[in-house]
Structures are given as C-alpha cells and as structure tokens.
Amino acid sequence: MKPMLLVMLAGFVVVVANDRMRRNEFAATSSVQGVLEGTYSESVVESQAREDTRAARMEAAPSPNSVEGDMIMTLEQEEEYMVVQEATAENKTRIRRSGATAFKGWPNGTLVYTYAADVSSHTKLLFEKAIKKYKEKTGIQFVEAHDGSYVGTIQPLTVRQRGAGCYATLGCVGVNCGGFINLQKYACEVIGVMLHEIGHALGRFHEHTRSDRDNHIFVIRSNIRPGFEKNFEKRQWPIVAPYDSHSVMHYAALAYSRDGVSETIFPYNARDRLKMGRQSELTRLDAYSINAAYNLFECSSPENVWKRCRRGGVPNKHCTCDCLPTFSGPYCETFEKPTDCSQIHTRRSGTITSPGFPRRYPNNAHCTYVIECSEKSLVELRFKNFRLEAGNCWYDTLSIFMGVLESETYPDVYCGNFLQGQLLVSFDNVVIMDFKSDSGIRFPGFEVKYRCVPTYY
How far is Cα 85 from Cα 77, in angstroms, rounded to an integer? Predict the structure, then answer.
C-alpha cells in the first residue's frame, strides 16, 4: 500500500449528510440558544478538567521554529501550508497535487517509533498509554524500533525530551519518514499532549483551522496575542468528517490569549467553552478522521455506514458505529437500560423527575434518561426544580449530552441549584441525561419538562 495522504488533503469523500449540517447550523443560529449563557457554570466543568486543560495550555506555549505553536514542518511543507490559506477555485487542483508531495502519511498505516536515551520511564509509560488509545480506536499500527533489532527500511519517529516545548514533525517526513516528537520534561508529561502530538506525527492539522470552522466557532482576533494571528488562519483542505470541538487537535478557548483571560475562541454552543482543549480522550471523530486518511476501514464504503448510524453514532474501523453511552448495537439502535429507573422518552413532550421526587432521592442511585424527538427537531428542557448536592459536582450530579451528537465526548455536568428555573435547548434531536448520587447527603432532586421543537429548515 502506498503512503496515504493526510486527513485534510484531496482524495477523501465528504460523508456528512446534508441534513445533519443544516440541523447543526440551525441550532447554532437559533435565537433560543441565547439561554445558554444563563446556564453555564465554569466551576462545574473546570473542577473536572484541570489536568485535561493543562495539555491545551502547554500547546499554546509556542515552541521554537514551529508552525501554529507545535508543528515542525519542512520548508516544502511550510510553503505549501501557507499557500492553502489563499486557495481559490482556480488554484485548488494545483494545491492538492503539490500538497500530495509535501504531506504524506506513514506507509501501510504503520508508525515506527523509538525512544531517545533522554526519555524518562514515566514519559514512556504515558506515551504507551496514548498509543494504546490510538490502537483501540484506529487501524494504525505502532511498531517500536528497538536498538539493534529493527531492520525495516522506514526511519523511526524519535520520541525525545530535548529542551523546552511540546511539538512534533508532521506526517511522514522525507523519503523514509523519520521525524520526532519532543516532550519537555514535566511540562509535557500529560497524556493529552501526547495524544495531540501523535496526531501531528500521523499528519493531522489543528481542527480550528478548518475552512468550515466559522459555522461552529467564532475567533475573536482582537484577543489574540500580537504576532500569533496566523495560528488562527483557515486552511482550504477538503473536509472528511463533522467539525469536532472536543477533538484532541482543537485549541482551547484561551489559546494564545493576549492577557491569559480573554477568550480567543468562542463556540456557538456555549457549553463547549471549557470542553475545547480537554484532550483526555481520542474522540470518535478523531478516530474516524485517521481511519479515513489511511483507508483503514474493513469495508470499501464507510460513507454507507454513516447513513445507517443512529443517535450520533460514528463509523468505526470495523464498519459498525461507535455509540454514545447507553446506546449499543451495530448502528446504535438499542437503548441499554443500565438500571430499573432508566427511561427512554419518545413522546413530543413530557416530564422527567429524579427517583422519589419531590422527596429526597435515594443514595447510590443511577438513572439514565433518553429523550428522542423526530429527525428534524431539537429538544427543549425546562427545569422547574433542581436541587442536588453541590461541592463542585464531585458527589451527586446530572450529566447531559445535548450538543451535536456525533461530536459529543464530554457531557455537561451540573449539581447544586445551577439549573433551577433554567431553559436548555439541544443541538440535535436526542438528549441523554445521566443522574448519579453517592452514599452521602440526599437532596430533593429535579423536575424537568421537555418538548420537541421543530427546526423548520
């Protein structure tokens, strides 16, 4: 097999159904989304994401001689990468041809790597954990080239800890690959950093530079640190998957902020503000993009699997669908009821309450509630009552998936009285709510009215 072209280059089929894209754009621009500001609590998400966002903070610290802070390119790659910023209908074909020369994937979907002598045992352990996540979700093979035993013709990628910075070369560099990932001691010893830099080494670019990003995020240029504006320019590579604000390749909201507190990226789904840049997991769309780039699916037409995936399912390497929690089956068609109190609601409106409401909910409860509206609808939630134990959401919680389902990885987590009297509107036609209580203090719980809202596009 010849080396595959990178994720953003020519030769891939756009497989996102048009109705999905229209629905997501409707949700992003609908006036009802204004209520999101009143329901967002940074402390809720932040308390559970400090270590994850540390990875994003390190990537926003520019590394020497890098593009966009952490990509090390050859002169040919850098020239080509800057050209795509000005891509037009007239020169697009030429750009794709030259891009195929400048950017290559690893032959046969196999990344060969080796550790430099300066790499600590702790870094090796974390790096192997990051590799394991890629192995589980993608068809990429990782082969460690041990000194004296490796006889392959491909030059290994060197994992090293030389000086400051977290950065990587992009894809297969030169004729026989090679390249490196640099992981500064202590600062870059975070699994999120490693997932991100392995992505670059496999040939992935930053998600926020996609040409369609303006449908999903707003870049606040006045808040960008002077001299780093180019890190936020859009690139005209073909799109192969839905936009993924939870991707390990996405910048955080404060990336390259001029003062460290002014946001440079604001998502149209305000609930994603602190989920951008978390990077603790390889998302389902991360895996899909890599499998598409390297043609690692076990079927010839993964786009046909997209058509069959339900409830936010994403085609995986086995040509079935990776599902959100509580759904299963080849195409996410089955609702897995984890406990007796779990429910699925398919009527156009109704009421959902915590166990025993309005009395105090029991200890160690776990109830999953799914609301499923028709395809061209969104879900509106009105919380008439909401009283859970607070404490930064370490104890009793209501976790909700209600963004664009195929790009959901991290739920919105609520506790205390954050949702009392609030209105939430989903970005898709299915909402998943997961309620958990611990063995300590009990509270009255919640009462939420839901209804299906037609989108009329």
Answer: 13
d(CA 156, CA 198): 13
Q: Is 206 annotated as a binding residue?
A: yes
Tokens standing for 436?
A: 């958990």
Active-site residue, 197 included: yes
What are 345's two structure tokens?
A: 């609601």
What is the per-residue pLDDT across 198-249, written as a single tens digit (0 to 9) for each?
A: 999 999 999 999 999 999 999 999 999 999 999 999 988 878 899 999 999 9
Sheet holding 423-425, edge to edge: 349-353, 445-454, 377-387, 423-425
Q: Is 200 annotated as a binding residue?
A: yes
366 annotated to bind ligand: no
Among candidate residues 189, 197, 372, 406, the one labeled active-site is: 197
Q: What is the pLDDT of residue 278?
A: 87
- Residue 260 neighbours by CB distance under 10 Å: 9
Axis crossing angle, helix 121-137 with helix 284-293, rounded to the nearest 10: 80
65 phi-psi bin (left φ>0, alpha ψ -120 to 50, beta other) = left
pLDDT number for residue 48: 47
